[in-house]
């Protein structure tokens, strides 16, 4: 998609490999992702994406035009306390925390974070995608990569996008998926398996 060469290094979070002494030397915050570019270690997804685009001159993904770049930055700053926070917390509340504590989530917590995720999705629908066809303009950028990955977290947890309420979001997601194939499906293989498992379990509970 970008032709930027890389060597993938998988970190199994379920095995707590991100907590190992070796990984802490790379990211002392014990988070993923991180890159090691010939000895230059960098963490945080937004910083990594902008760095790679700047280094390899991928201006189609991270524009050099001042105004276009500012639009990408505007979205990536907004997402941290909005879509990224609400989507990831909803996923953690339904999937991660119950797995750690060995007890189901409360309806109150699920409803609270679901409503907040809906609020963030409304921001996509009526602000970002109301003024342009993509999150930061009229062509796909790293803003869209970040945005769709955050949207996929609640979906992986078994939730559905309300397509009647958020038609622009639905259309945008379909276009981003199409433009990033086959990588989109490859990246989300595990999360889609999780979704199928959750939906199957929920269906069994009903019957």
From TrEMBL:
InterPro entries named in the record: Glutathione-S-Trfase_C-like, Glutathione-S-Trfase_C_sf, Glutathione_S-Trfase, Glutathione_S-Trfase_N, GST_C, GST_C_Theta, GST_Theta, Thioredoxin-like_sf
Q: Which SUPFAM superfamilies match?
A: GST C-terminal domain-like (SSF47616), Thioredoxin-like (SSF52833)
Task: From the Swiss-Prot or TrEMBL record, state where the protein is found.
Answer: Cytoplasm
The answer to whether keyword Cytoplasm applies is yes
| Span of domain GST C-terminal | 65-198
Cellular component, GO annotation: cytoplasm
Q: Which reaction does it catalyse?
A: RX + glutathione = an S-substituted glutathione + a halide anion + H(+)
Indicate yes or no for the key word Cytoplasm.
Answer: yes
- Highest taxon above the source species: Eukaryota
Q: Which UniProt keywords apply?
A: Cytoplasm, Transferase
BP GO annotations: glutathione metabolic process
Q: List, alphabetically, the PROSITE patterns matched.
A: GST_CTER, GST_NTER
Domain GST N-terminal: where? 1-60
Where is it mainly found?
A: cytoplasm
- Which Gene Ontology terms cover its molecular function? glutathione transferase activity
Which family does this protein fall into? Answer: Belongs to the GST superfamily. Theta family.
Name this protein carries in UniProt: Uncharacterized protein
Q: Look up and give the organism this protein is from.
A: Rotaria sordida
